[in-house]
Amino acid sequence: MKLEFNFSGTGGQGVILLGVIMAETAINEGYNALQTQCYGPEARGGASRCEVIISQDEIYYPKAQKPDYILCLSQAAADKFAKGLTPDTVLIVDSLIDLVEDPGTEKIYKLPIVDTARNKLGKEITANIISLGAILEITQLFTKEALLESVLDRIPKGTEEINIQAIEAGIELVKNWNENK
Amino acid sequence: MSDRSKLVDKYFRTENLPHIWCPGCSHGITTRAIVKAIDDLGLNPENVVIVSGIGCSSRAAGYLNFNTLHTTHGRALAYATGIKVSNPKLDVIVITGDGDASAIGGNHLIHACRRNIDLTVIVFNNSIYGMTGGQYSPTTPHEAFGTTAPYGNIDRAFDLVKLVEGAGATYVARGTAYHALQLTNYIKKAITHKGLSVVEAVSSCPTYYGRRNKLGDAVAMIQWMKDTFVEKRAYERLDEEQRIGKFPFGEFVNIEAPEYTDKLYQMINEVEARHEAGV
Amino acid sequence: MNKKALLMQGNEACVRGALYAGMRFYSGYPITPSTEIAEMSAVLLPTVGGAFIQMEDEIGGIAAAIGASIAGKKAMTATSGPGFTLKMENLGYAVMSEIPLVIVDVQRGGPSTGLPTQSSQADVMQTKWGSHGDNSLIVLSPNSVTETFYLTVEAFNLAEKYRTPVVILTDEVIGHAREKIILPEPGEIEIFDRLPPLEDRPYRPFGVEEGDKVPRFAAFGTGYRYNITGLYHNESGFPSNSQENAKLMLERIHNKLKDEEIIKYEKYQMEDAEYVFLAFGSTSRSAVAAVNELRAEGYKVGLFRPITIWPSPEKAIDEIASKVEGICVAEMNLGQYVLEVERIAAGRTKVSHLGRANGDILRPEEFVNHAKEYFNER
After folding, report:
1. How crowded is residue A120: how many other Cβ atoms within 10 Å of its Cβ?
2. Cβ–Cβ of C221/B89 closer than 8 Å?
3. What ipTM score was computed for the predicted complex, to two decimals?
4. For testing contact with chain B, the best of C225, C226, C231, C242 (most B CBs within 10 A)
5. CA distance C141 to C296
6. pLDDT digits (tens, 9 = 90+) for B222-237
């Protein structure tokens, strides 16, 4: 088993932390994992991308070659990565994003991640943890408990409750998408 | 036996003498003032570290029988910072020149002052790059001559006292090779002062600065110091006209402020204790 | 009990390794992509009673670290790109005055300010030749987070054992990547401390006692008053202009690093290899992936990975050069280490270069294509 993830968005959306938590959960669950990031000089507002490779075997080449899962949280990220994909790639995008006519795959999840973060949880910064919940539900890669453990390890004290809600919200978004498809 | 030769026997690596300084150079007077200060204070030589940069004055380190470190050009204060932080019980004295301290090492100088780390800096200021043969330095007076200022120096000179005072040094004094007794006293106070102390030791370079600027021989240059430098309190009593062509020497800053290694180890000890307690 | 596997960034592994080896002083200046090494040192050093200082510039960063080492502490500084260039002057000082010191260079794209957030291996010649004069030092290149930890421990050990600066030459990919690591327990890896002066004879600060590899080291303030200088010096440490002395001293500093135990490398699929990739650091990971792919297709390829970059693994490369049909030196630059390999191979085998310097790590398919091209033309 070897899975490649490409998480992208705008600096400040927390896509790198998202990747770190994915990789950490994978390691806690006995996999090998490798996380890299690609970023510009801006700490906030620039394009931000993070890749995670999860594998049962050694990981040599450290970058994703053909991502199995692509998550785009900003239009700019989608313009760059949500195109020319192969049919087996799973594409997860925020519902505010306009996709090109044919991204190459039909395995698309358009989820109101940013809207949920902003309006339901009241904190836009939770978009990355909502995304984690969604990815968990889509991939079924880990147990919820395993993911939660890594999330709680990496977030500031006092934000446990909202982050647990964010995971649940992400899982819900995918369930709703599947039901209404 | 004279007092001088006793100091030489006690503190110099006599096997490394004679020194490289030109006849008439006043660096020997300043070096002696440092050694005399150390002797008067009764410092344990094993705990004395002399750090120098590059230049004529910086060669002093090698002749002195302490822990001596002759570093790279301008960097003496950065090396000294690493030593002092690693072992705060050492008495770390930095010997440097005007070019070493205020040109290539200017950044280290102002930041050592800013930190107020307990180092003693003695700047042998002869207003010229002597080791390389007489180029103008940041303390060469405006319109004076150097081999690289053949038509007169168009730069303006640093006032080292004001520079280090502005940067945060907590003890600042200026002495001259002529006023050797006072110079020794300033160095003693600088060494005992807790914090970053700077003593500017006005020196003479008859070989390069003196000849190029037609200031006469070594004796004439020392005489010039005598005639030109006025003790600070007396200088302050002079009116504007009387001050023309005169410079003050004396103590300019002597204040107490938190010292860097004290603050650093206070923090380290607190963090370490918390860590060991598992907090 | 199985020890817990952690997710750790390469730069953090470097700091953890340094602390494991006994680092008690860090001084540096912030620069991408090495800054996390300074940040982690600032967090962790005080927890073990060690000192962190952010200096006023890169030069001060290395100078203070050398000062700390002279005062008896194990010291490290880290930098990248332009910062490494600024450290060259005092790197040479540490070589000349034989001060144990670890310098980390997390390579980024150059020249000049270049590509601060992207990777490169274009400092490989600078590590050896960047400081003026005939510089001899040790350079180690890790290719993973775990190896960054272990090689940092090794770097401190070698610095202490050989009284020399040791450069850890990593890059943005390895420095910033997070991957699995299982940290060793204290005591699991042997830690070497510089040898103090012998009590039964006068101390010669720069004289080598019989049976020793290098002069013994007395920290300032421990009762041995002597001089250290960047000038050529005699055994007492006093400057010497003697050409005879200069010759002997430089040769000694150069020859002390000819010890074979310094040289480390790794061979992968080399037994029957006809064509060999030579790659180090992050690039070697792409090479392993490519070797696996090519082997699956029946191509007899292998990988030679220098871990000690300088001194170069000359004997091992020499042996390969006399055995294989071709060597492809792959590196993220326009052709640097290939020159060293060409020198050693001396025409006995075809040496080619596979390189790029645009911030992106070489991809496995580039290796595969390069090798296939060779086999097709054969």
Report:
1. 16
2. yes
3. 0.97
4. C225
5. 28
6. 999 999 999 999 999 9
